[in-house]
Every structure is written in C-alpha cells, then in structure tokens.
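Can't paste images in this forum, so I'm doing it all in text. The chain is below; anyone willing to post the predicted structure tokens underneath?
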Amino acid sequence: MPGLSPVRGLGAEAGRAAVRLARLPLDIAVEGVGRLTGWLGHARPARSGDRDELFPTESGIPVLLVHGLADREWVVSALQRGLGGCGAGPFVPVSYNALSPDIRTAARVLGDQVELAHARSGGRPVVLIGYSLGGLIARYYVQRLGGDAYAPLVITLAAPHGGTVTALLAPPHPLLRQLRPGSEVLTELAERAVGCRTRFVAFYSDLDEAVVPAARARIDHPDLKARNVLVPGVGHLTLPLHQPVIDQIRSLLTAAGQAAAAAARGTRDSGDESEDAET
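Text version of the structure:
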C-alpha cells in the first residue's frame, strides 16, 4: 500500500501527537465525569424516535466504529467523513468505558450494540471498524463471544493484536495491563478459534510508536481468515487518517454491502420459490 517517506511520516505523526497531548487532559476529564454519571460504559443508544433516521430502509450495511483508549471523537469523526458515500452505513459510533478494568467487559458492551444495530436494520449483517484498543475489543467480541454470527467483516487499524511492549512501561491502567504480551486476554485470543466465520483485515504500520514491535498489529492466527496490510511510513495516530487506508476501507465496505445485498436477495428468492411450491 502507498505510504509516506519516513521523514514525512515522522513529521506528520509528531504534529498529530502534539495536538493529542494538548487535548488529553480534557479527554481524561470527560472520561472521569462520564464514569461518575454513568454515561460511559455504554454505546450511544439511539432514541426510539431516531430509529428510522439511523437505519432507513434504503441504507446499506451498518458499520460500527470502535475508538481507541483516548481518542473517541477525532478518530470516529474522521472515519465518518472519509467513508461517507461509499454505499455502506449508517456509521454508528460505539463508546465504551475507557476506565473499565477489562477488555472482556468492553467487548460485551460492543456486542449489545451490534445486536441492536442488527435488529434495527432489519437483520442486516454488521461491519466493525476498530482503531487501536478498539480493534482488539472488536476481535475479542467476534472471536470469543460469538460475534461472528453478526459481523462478517472486522477491520482493525493499528490494533495491538499481539500486545505491545509499551504497555510494560505505561501507568498501571487495567486495560493497558491487558495489552502486555502474554496477558490472559491475549492468551485467550491465541487459543483455537475453529469455525470463526468472520473475515479480518488488519492495517498496520512499520512506524507505529504505540504498538511495539509494529508486527504485533498483525493478526497471525491459524484459524482466522485474516489479511494483514502493511502501511509504510505512517505512525499510530496517522494511520486511520491516511487516505490510501481510507480508500481501501471504502472498497472493503462496498464489497461487504454488495455481498449482504446478494445474500438477502437469495434468501427472498428462496422464500418465493418455497411459496410457489406450496401453492
């Protein structure tokens, strides 16, 4: 995949890192307020009156966007802008409690929202796009909690599938401890997953400063249908905004939507044939 030169990539990453560091205290404060009020820990539920707006009859395959540990707004907003008009959607942001002690808990919250989107869209399959920690949460839900029944495609962006050594140096945050190589959660994900129906596409970079070594953002599991896409010359913060990555995701969503529509037509045709046979 086209990338950036190392110098340009490092420059772009440094600029985005400065912006993120400037906003981090506010983001942490918002997370803390949410913790106290109980707003976080749940995806943003649609109001009953919003059902038709979020899931119109003519909409495509629902896409749930799962953010990383401290980047809820900017990644989701950028992905929504970049992926609009590709025939997929609606695009539904999913928020989990970043102060939660467990990836498993966040994955169950995600599962509730996947099933809600599936039901409100008339039984359509759901695509998951997860950035950083969000990609690991999406994978855990699909691989360990039966989410492959709802999500035929999971796209991860700079997700630490194999853990990261930076988690060994990070503050003792419960979720960060689960990103350490060899953690219980990562050991679970390394176990057999025979029969998992979901297809994975994992985008990773050779300049990822958060997932170290960078190859740990790959999915290398003998039982999973996974394609790993190297994006050279971009960092952890730049990867989900990199236009070639956005273009590939658009193509993946278009293909997933076409496959879902074809499957739905086949189901309807089979039903019509059964009715004709009965008459």
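The chain has a mean pLDDT of 82. The longest strand covers residues 199-205.
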